[in-house]
Design goal:
This protein folds into 2 domains: 8-137, Arc Repressor Mutant, subunit A (Orthogonal Bundle), CATH 1.10.10; 180-276, Beta-Lactamase. It is 46% helix and 18% strand. The model is unreliable at 2-6 (pLDDT under 50). Helix 2 packs parallel to helix 4 (84-98) and helix 4 crosses helix 5. It is of the alpha+beta class.
């Protein structure tokens, strides 16, 4: 499944629609204030969820076969049904079912493809399903009040991830997109390349959302924190100040300001960097 490229305004509008859809599903099938169970939602839809060893071919996959839908996830790679990455993967595949264009493609005979979940894919279809999964597991009515009640720092956001039983990466992305503080999150690959950056509208309006080309080539403070985080991943969060102009274009001169940078290792998935205007 592929989608034609959209301009940023149309893409943002579409993601807002997908977010609202996920919120509605969560409130309808898993109402209340507790955690959302993607397995319960799959059962509600009569979609079997099949764990197995799929030899690292994918994290998850939605298949339409014989007039029925099936969800698969690689338990050997991800773990058991209570693992936060499994929960996100099943929610992601539910996104492929709930998003009309995704579901109809499969029903029309488009060959299914395996998903790599957790905001690691550049494919627009996969990013849409990731967006759905994040809002399904952290619906607005439950997440937003708690996001507003904590400070913009990884320690408290990671505690929120535990409360919602989701991965740290998905919770940080959801927090940034909730737009309660001026902040951003960056995923850096194991090769020290920027995989993606997600910026809150508040921060984007202050220092522009465009990242400087080759930012990691010269950001010595950031590179030092990345190196320390990867050398000792059990240590936790490495932090320090950084100028906005280090990261963002058009943040020079009067638009420049000091940001607070927190870096944590994600092991084989790379490094997570959180930027905020508050220490």
């Amino acid at each position: 499944m592929t989608r034609p490229k959209m301009n940023s305004e149309r893409a943002s509008h579409r993601l807002a629609e997908i977010s609202a859809l996920a919120d509605e599903v969560a409130e309808e099938i898993c109402p209340g204030t507790g955690r959302v169970d993607p397995f319960e939602i799959a059962a509600h839809l009569s979609i079997p969820v099949l764990a197995g060893n799929y030899r690292n071919a994918f994290d998850g996959l939605l298949e339409f076969r014989g007039g029925e839908f099936y969800i698969y996830y690689d338990a050997e790679r991800l773990g058991g049904p209570d693992n936060s990455r499994v929960r996100f993967t099943v929610a992601h595949e539910l996104g492929h079912w709930y998003i009309d264009e995704h579901r109809e493609c499969l029903k029309q005979g488009v060959k299914p493809h395996g998903s790599w979940t957790g905001f690691v894919s550049d494919n627009a279809v996969e990013r849409e399903a990731d967006c759905f999964a994040a809002h399904l597991l952290m619906p607005r009515s439950r997440f937003s009040p708690k996001a507003c009640a904590i400070g913009p720092n990884l320690k408290e956001i990671f505690e929120l991830a535990q409360e919602f039983d989701v991965s740290r990466t998905s919770c940080v992305v959801r927090y940034v997109n909730s737009n309660v503080y001026a902040c951003a999150v960056v995923l850096v690959s194991p090769e020290n390349r920027i995989s993606w950056i997600c910026t809150s509208k508040i921060l984007a309006d202050r220092v522009y959302p465009t990242v400087r080309p080759g930012v990691l080539d010269n950001a010595t403070g950031t590179l030092g924190r990345i190196a320390r985080a990867n050398a000792d991943p059990d240590f936790g969060i490495h932090d320090g100040p950084v100028d906005a102009s280090t990261w963002f274009r058009y943040a020079d001169g009067s638009r420049d300001e000091e940001l607070f940078e927190e870096v944590v290792s994600l092991g084989r998935f790379g490094t997570l960097i959180f930027l905020s205007t508050e220490e």
